[in-house]
Amino acid sequence: KEKNANEPEFLQAVEEVLNSLRPVIDANEDKYRREALLERICEPERQFKFRVPWVDDKGQVQVNTGYRVQFNSAIGPYKGGLRLHPSVNIGIIKFLGFEQIFKNSLTGLPIGGGKGGSDFDPKGKSDREVMAFCQSFMTELCKYIGADTDVPAGDIGTGAREIGYMFGQYKRIRRLYEGVLTGKGLTYGGSLARTEATGYGLLYLTQELMKDHGESMEGKTVVVSGAGNVAIYAIQKAHQMGAKVVTCSDSTGWIYDPEGIDVDLLKEVKEVKRARLTEYAAARPSAEYHEGRGVWQIKCDIALPCATQNELLIDDAKQLVANGCKAVCEGANMPTTIDATEYLQENGVWFVGGKAANAGGVATSALEMSQNSERLSWTFEEVDAKLQTIMVNIYRNISDAAKRYGFEGNYVVGANIAGFEKVAEAMEAQGVC
Ligand code: NDP
To answer: For the domain bounded by 42-179, which CATH number is listed?
Structure first.
């Protein structure tokens, strides 16, 4: 703790994961102590911090700080996104990298854990400024990454535009055309179904959860928050499965549409026009628009938070339980607060956290890596079928892991255990390194 005293987010993440691993740690105490396994897993294998100078549109030199933490390569090349946001510091990158190890392990694919980024803020910058930053960032980063070493992806602030500029610079300096980044455009090595992957994956896992409890998606009422990438494709897949999604939200308001959200209209409003949800309501007579937040008060069988962190609070959890909600699966990262999670679990709601439920995104990024290695592009159907198998397996693994340690039905503990076991076993097999 003293060693990482200036990294509160990292300390919090480590504490949370280790607490939930208590039964595994107790069962293997001597071995783990002898091998210093926990100490090793909490220490990044390597971390880089570097200067990123670039010239703005006024001709002024700006200087940002770049980071890449290569946390754990026991089961595959480091993999994790690049976050571009003014709040980025080494503690945040380490916290995200640490969590990434277990999420990546859960996918069952050979990807280790890493994370990177910079305190650069792409908001309000011109395309030329963003390109100047990305080229400078990659000029340094390209020394440490590669298709078989470390494969970064997008994250907050790093979308298709930034990935494109970074890929171009990597190719130019390293003279290698390889899958060094994921989230690429379809014309230069991106994967079909990546856009849909997180939302679709969330529903494949939710469907398996319902099946395991003797239920189906058919005829279920679903409440979704958010109206971005994850939410849109979660709604689309839920409808394909015969459920009815009656809500969505953005950062200013929310929609209740008892006829079921019209996905085509929602895509038009959000993806094409980039407008507010008031436009959805204006075009859809069955929809009600409300300012502020409130989707969790709508009666439902299944709730899928797909917007942002800390958006499902204790009072929302109480409302969901009172309304007879059976399952909550997280599409977003950390949308449910800890007390809300505990309340849901204590009241018999089947709760699957984001580490497992939204892993379809990173899993499909790993499928992009496979396609790049083969120099082939799979069809949408091929990628989608693989995604479905991966999500079903994730559910089975987390459910089994929870059962094995006497925590049947606790999918949060199950996810941490299942993710950890594979990495720990690989680390043991590879000796002290
Ligand atoms: P987007 O930016 O596409 O969409 C986020 C949506 O949530 C937007 O509609 C946004 O509204 C809305 N939102 C933001 N803040 C609030 C709020 N306080 N209350 C209600 N709605 C809000 O992001 P994604 O869909 O890609 O990501 C959503 C979540 O899923 C994030 O936590 C992300 O980390 C996580 N995730 C995403 C993956 C992916 O592949 N995209 C993979 C794994 C996790 P507005 O339009 O007003 O900004």
So the answer is: 3.40.50.10860
